[in-house]
Structures are given as C-alpha cells and as structure tokens.
Amino acid sequence: MTRTARRTRRPLQMAVGGAAALLILSACSSSGTDSSAKPDSSGPGKLSGEVTVFAAASLKESFTTLGRQFEKDHPGTKVTFSFGGSDSLAASITGGAPADVFASASPSTMKIVTDAGDASGTPATFVRNELEIATLPGNPGKISSLEDLTKAGRKVVLCDREVPCGAAAQRALDASGLELTPVSYEQDVKAALTKVELKEADAAVVYKTDVRAAGDKVEGVEFPESADAVNDYPIALLKDAGNTEAAEAFIALVKSAEGQKVLSGAGFLKP
Amino acid sequence: MTLPTDKPRAGADTLRGGPRRRRVRTGVPLPLLVPALIGLAFLIVPLIALVVRTPWHSLPAQLTSPDVWQALKLSLICATLATGVSLVIGVPLAWLLARVDFPGRGLVRALVTLPLVLPPVVGGVALLMALGRNGIVGRWLDAWFGITLPFSTAGVVIAEAFVAMPFLVISVEGTLRAADPRYEEAAATLGASRFTAFRRVTLPLIAPGIAAGAVLAWARALGEFGATITFAGNFPGRTQTMPLAVYLALQSDPEAAIALSLVLLAVSIAVLAGLRDRWMRAG
Fold first, then answer.
1. CATH number, domain B59-276
2. What is the pTM assigned to this prediction?
3. Are residues A176 and A124 in the same domain?
4. What is the CATH number of the domain that holds A177?
5. Among the four residues B93, B130, B145, B178, which has the most C-beta atoms within 10 Å?
6. Contact present, B159 and B244 (Cβ < 8 Å)
7. Which of the four pLDDT bands, split at 50, 70 and 90, describes residue B110?
C-alpha cells in the first residue's frame, strides 16, 4: 500500500491507472508464492522459481540464449522474457509490471526506472551497442555512408526518437551535420529492421547486433559517425523482484565471462 | 480525484439501483438487470477513468500543439477517404451478396467479414505481402507505375478501408435483405434495367442502412492502429494518425497520450451519438 501511495505522486503512474493497480496486485501475489516456495535462499545451486526479465528488443537473441543457459545451470528455474522498446518496458515497470530484472538499451530509459525508485541498487553497464546501416542483401543502392541515406528517393526508416535506437541515430546524424527525412519512424529497432527485411525500405539505421541477428536477410554497412552514438546498456535488479536470488544470479551470468562471450558473439561491444 | 467517488457510485447503480427504481424492477428480472448493469459499467468506467485522469490544466496547450492538430487532421481525412473507398466498392459488394445467388456465396460472405475478427496487425502484414513494394501485387504497381503504397497517406487509407469496410458491407447487406425486392421487380416490369432499378429504387430505399454502415466504418477507420502502423509506418503529417500518436506519446509523455485519447474519444462519441439516432434506428 505504501507503494501505491508513493506512486500517486508521479504523473507517469497516474496515467497507467487501474491496470497498474491490477498488475501490482498480481506482482504481490506471485512474489508471495515464489518466496514461500523457496526452501532455502542461501548459497548457489539452490535457485528455483521464475525470473522475469524485461529487456530491450535488441537483446532478444543473446538474452534468449543466456536464459536457456541459466535454466540449464539451475534446474528448476524458469526465465521468462518480455522484449520490447526500452521506453515502453520502463513505463510498464514504473506502472507496476511484475518484473525482476530490467536490461535497457540506454541509460536514459533506465533512469526512468531508477528515478521512480523501482530499481534495487545501482544499474551496471554490461554491454555497449553501435549503430550500423542495414540495407538489402547485396547492397543494390550502393550505400556506403550515412550521407548516402539522405539522397533523394531513398526510402530509409529510423526508430522513433523516443526509443534509444532512434535517439542514437539522431545523435549520429547531428554529429555529421546531416538532415535525414525517413519514410517512417518505427516504434522499435526490430520494426525498423523488418521493413528492410521485407524490402519495403532501402535502409534502416539499427544496431549492429540486429544486423548480425538478421543473418543474410540484410547487409550491414558501418559508418564512422556511429562512434558518436554508442549506446550503453544498463542492467538492474528491480526492487519488487519476487525472486531476488535467482534474479541476481541471472544478472551475474550476464556480466560473467560466459555471458559476455554470448553478447560479444551477437555483436555487442564490451563496456 | 473523483475516481474514488466514481467507484462506489458504479456499485450503487447495480445494488441500490434496483429497489429505488421499482418500476424497472417489475419489468426487468434482476438476474438480467444486474449483469447488464455490470456490463454497462465495464464498458463505461474505463472511459470515465480517461476523463477523470485527463490533465485538464495542460489540456489546452496539448490540444493546440501543431503535432496534435496534424495527427487529428490526418486521422479525419484518412478515415473519411477510407469510408469513401468502402462506399464505392463496399455497397456493390453488399448488393452482390444480398441479391445475386452464386455458388460459394456463404464462403465469400465469410471472407468479406474476415477483417472484423482478424487482428489488425495481421491485416497490416497481409497488406504488406499483397501491396508492399515487394508484395505480389505491389511489385507490379512499383515496376509499372512507380507506385509504392507503404509509408504513404494512401497506404493509411488502404489499411483503414481494409479494416473498416466489412462494417459497411454487413450493414448494407442486412438492409438490402430487409428491403422488399418487389419494388425492384416492379421497376423491372416498367422497363428499367437492373442497374437503373438499383440506382433509382434500391439505393434510395437502403440509404439509411448505407449511412449507418458508413458511420460505423468511419468510426472504425478513425480508431485503426495495428494495420496502419504495420502497413503505412509512422511519419508525422503523412502516416501518423491519432492512434499512432497516442501509442508513441505513451512511451514518453503519458499526459499527452491521455489528452490525445480524450480528443479521439470525444470525436468518436460526437459522431456516433449525433448520427445514431438519425440513421441507425431507421436502418
């Protein structure tokens, strides 16, 4: 109940309204069963129950791998993911969505959660991600630089400026002094990439990791201005985590050498 | 604010409302009245909540911002165009379904109404596969005429028409079935061709049904989100309609999202309430 009282001070929570209250209730009930079901919470290897991880859409492939790894290392655990735009995930968390771990694609979206007092401890940067231009296989438009995207007749999609990949793309464009009018501002990085995969757009400015994950459906073009738009990915344990031990263990796995290997294999940079 | 007082009131309507309104109680059995009122509350309370949570102090600034006006204008224009498209091709389609007996008519009717139950995003994906630059029809549009529909205002209209037209077809077909075909037969015996009979006799006869269907289709088009964002993308002034603006505003500025939602709600209610009495009852 004190949570609810604190929440009402923030306009963001007010917006989420009754749905949030329901989610808080469900969060409470699920956390109750989780902790009571745990026989012993001390020491490794005794983890059980469910870990709910809210993670940026760009982490989908590598975190899914790590989740499977985690379940294998700790039989009896189950990792469930909610992947999406970092902003909407942050809004869900501050709105009371039942999550244990939040991994966001930018410090500013993480800040929404820490400012609301929903994170436990300080978020840690675990990877960094660089932008790349995704074009059609074989690069039929001969796109070799960010400037090539500004040519007339090019259909380029960007992420909406409200989501981290869009904010990063804007930083890169600002750094190069280029004006780019896309055909669409997509709601997250995967949506932007999909438009290229479906050949509806000629190019999209997305993360290097997404280009790699898409395999040969798109071709990646590096551009020097991406150095001005490197995104730090912070991860944090959430205050209302129903399964703190398992959540901490998952974060440890992400930060471990093993986890970093998976992440760098997906194209992420070391922090 | 007023939300706490609203909740008990909704309860009072269902519990205390019965005894107070004796006249109603004698007419409507309680086992029907109570669920009906709960149903009413279920549909209306979320809308009341939206109004209650509206940031009234910042509302004027939100509503006069050019972005909102741009999105609203685009929404109104596209919904109207989508309704126009639906009328031009939907009314003949409804006539075909109601008046012409052909094999597989039941299946065609089911297919025509499929967008009603299809998730709009699926509709958007289907439109991309058909009319996208790489779609089975779209690639020829692109190659022969240089027309690409995704990311264009025309794409918004198409997405909205795809989702909204079944409402019109159902409404018009129902009216046609209720309309007496003897008028058309009489016109035919007087020498009118079937098309003349349709134009001069049937059309005026079913006008209320067409109007009702058009209003429904317009309102559905106005609220279209999934197919639009999937097929037409999101670009302010060109493809960003109000529902898209609401969704993206919710990511960063929930107050703006609520204000935008309120506008959409007000426009929809105004149109539905204003036209319902005049045409829907007649239809």
1. 1.10.3720.10
2. 0.74
3. no
4. 3.40.190.10
5. B93
6. no
7. very high
